[in-house]
């Protein structure tokens, strides 16, 4: 047994009264801080210092935003100059901001597992070449030297720390590229837009089993992965700018070209005066009749295919004559004239005809170049404004549909998913595993960061 004085010498901090502690804290707070005197003794804990050091770091999130793309470019390995605790805390904070940041920490701790799944790849060539007896072959057996083999890559076990989260339904939807973020995928599930094995599933935390198939509504996928609509004010401003540019071009052109006929002049004047939809429909019907007359003639099979495609485009334009524009009609008309010109050139250049004089071209080279560009524009428009991708003002995404900005940097599908983009469905094949040189859990962080985060959760709490 030790006396009170001896106990005080061993553990002086246990005998300080609260009043003395308060007085000591007040004296410490009154000590001025100057650069000459050095840094004032701080009572900030290591955790607080680690948090203060990480304030300027932007976290990577599970979404396709440009901010996440910038944060990806700024990722760095852990700072080894800091304490081990600070490194673990920073790694845990940054990785949890990416993996399941919408999940409460207490729930994630229940999901965390110390055992990390991995597989060892067997070399089929080695197994076929040997039967195991070579392992006992040494000196005197003819095996004095070994062949120089390539050192196998290490298995990144530490990158699998968050593999339990990959079983969640919302995470699997995001990995299958059916949503632009995990939170959006969770919203799809809660709103009843997702089916698992043919039945509606409204629980985003549902743990998928190997072989489960999940499906998302295609319209929701197009909304999630497509470019957003521009604001109405922006659209009005762009429309006004285009209208002003067209008006200025009409004022500068003023009049007809030298080789323009009277009928073309009438058509041009009517288009300049913004014809009514009824007039546009009548002109489209006349154009359809001209195409039918050309098809009735003796035309080659390839040319007939082109004219049939043009007739189909004209028929679609007639079907939507109320929303037709003069630009669409001028493009179709230019394509028709271009095809007729091609047929005329082929007829003139045929070897059966023996012209005495060089035929004068029907249109100038400049006009031909304009027609070619108009034809190319129509071809591109047909690709992007086909029946499945036509303009639709009621759609919640920009039409014609195009991928979301910055999507290409995140467009990858992990190995444990089999995705069919045509029906917006995917199959969860198996749980992710670690292999030599590869971890199937997608993560943007370094191996050391994953190791530190895994060690943080190894603590017994």
Description of the molecule:
- The structure is a single chain.
- With 461 residues, the protein is mainly α.
- The chain has a domain at 262-351 and 363-400.
- 46% of the residues lie in helices and 5% in strands.
- Strands 2-1-3-5-4 form a five-stranded antiparallel beta sheet. A two-stranded antiparallel ribbon has the order 6-7.
- Strand 6 (434-435) and strand 7 form a beta hairpin.
- It is elongated, with a radius of gyration of 36 Å.
The largest sheet is: 5 strands, antiparallel
Q: Give the ordered list of helices and strands.
A: HHHHHHHHHEEEHHHHHHHEEEEH
Radius of gyration: 36 Å
What is the residue-mean pLDDT, rounded to a whole number? 77
- The structural class is mainly alpha
Distance between the termini: 34 Å
* Count of distinct strands: 7
Q: Output the strand order for the largest sheet.
A: 2-1-3-5-4
The helix fraction, in percent, is: 40-55%
User: Given the structure, what is the number of helices?
Assistant: 17
Global geometry: elongated
Beta-strand content:
under 5%
Low-confidence stretches: 6-44, 255-262, 265-272
Q: What's the oligomerization state? A: single chain
